[in-house]
Amino acid sequence: MVSQKRTKSSSIDLRFIDLFAGIGGIRMAFESAGGECVFSSEWDSSAQKTYHANFGEIPHGDITKISAKEIPKFNILVAGFPCQPFSSIGKRQGFNHPTQGTLFYDIVRILKFHKPDMFLLENVQGIRNHNGGNTYKIIKSSLKKLGYEVFDEILNASDYGVPQDRKRIYFVGFSKKLGTSNDINFKFPNPNKEKVYIGKFVENNVNDRSISKHLQQKYMFKVDDGRPQIIGPDSKITVKTLTASYHKIQRLTGTFVKDGPTGLRLLTTDECKAIMGFPKNFKVPVSRTQMYRQFGNSVAVPVVKKVAEAMVNKYKELI
Description:
Elements lengths: L14 E5 L5 H8 L3 E5 L4 H11 L20 E4 L23 H12 L3 E7 L9 H12 L2 E9 L10 E9 L5 H4 L28 H8 L8 E3 L23 E3 L11 H8 L11 H10 L3 H18 L1
Parallel strand pairs: 1-2, 1-3, 3-4, 7-8
Antiparallel strand pairs: 4-6, 5-6
Helix pairs in contact: 1-9, 7-8
Protein name: Cytosine-specific methyltransferase
Family: Belongs to the class I-like SAM-binding methyltransferase superfamily. C5-methyltransferase family.
Keywords: Methyltransferase, Restriction system, S-adenosyl-L-methionine, Transferase
């Protein structure tokens, strides 16, 4: 069996595994809610480096090559899984076939083998309409066939104390062995009453991330259409979704700071941490390009923390 360093345990049994772990955003949220991570998996070596710097362990690699029986016992599965085309939809019969060849299939096989009490899956909101809605239907039906009550909701990070508009879909599942549908009846957390804006996190006099005047004139502001989004210390707004390709300076979807020698620069590491809800002391031992990719691929931690707390509270009611 694969062994891995464990964190401090909680008063109730909340052992979880962290799949498609990235840099550990979901892990942070569940540890905050009292969980104990007993296994993690992430294939990207750069993300593994950041994960190790913050959690003291290197995640196991490609989950498709890890047998379910090698994974330690757990009762919560969490995963921010990639969305791939479900190319076999409508062409085959049987339980496994609709997801075979996708990374979601690995979630299915691990759930089927271990039968944990709960799970949380996170993905882009567009998965609801992917392939005419068939991908979403197969995800839900596959999870239900495994014996789970399944709930899903699209939540915006800006409603949960994050200065970023970032809509993601969250699938929460509770094993039917915990109770009836009426007993479980999970509710997603309510939005915060007050918004958090980006201005309070913007740094001043940053000199190393400047965007050249030439690039600004010839590309970024070639059309006077209010794009890209420009922010400063006085900005009372939530920024656009931070993407993994932020370093490519996209004029339509990017957010940049009015600062520095050329008057415009990219976000700093601490600004990215704030935008994703990571603490300032989170370690980032990788290149700037990898930093943008890793935060852009991660989760907004405060949102997941709220969902994790709601899951744990419901679990306490059921056990």
